[in-house]
Amino acid sequence: MSHLKTVLAAAALLLAACEQPAIFASSDSLANRLEVGMDQAQVAAVIGAHQFESRASGAEDTVCLSYIYDEAIDVKFVHATFVDGLLARATDGHRVACALT
Fold it and tell me: How far apart, in whole angstroms, are the C-alpha atoms of residue 89 and residue 38?
């Protein structure tokens, strides 16, 4: 039984190590300056106003805001997901605005 627990613990650690961080962004969008727990005004102070908003159906506390950057070369978006009004996750390099379902 202890061998099984060791194997399960090792598998859990490997999965956790593969998980993408909550803020996964480049310096191109300035999203790498964001921190989990920021509110929408704090995020806007760092990367500007959002252009698109998407809400999850049945989850009124979750919203994804899309921020355009890098328009001169090719439009890209930062996706910032807020839960209960606070930043939970942000990623950049997206070709389309976020769409929660």
Answer: 10
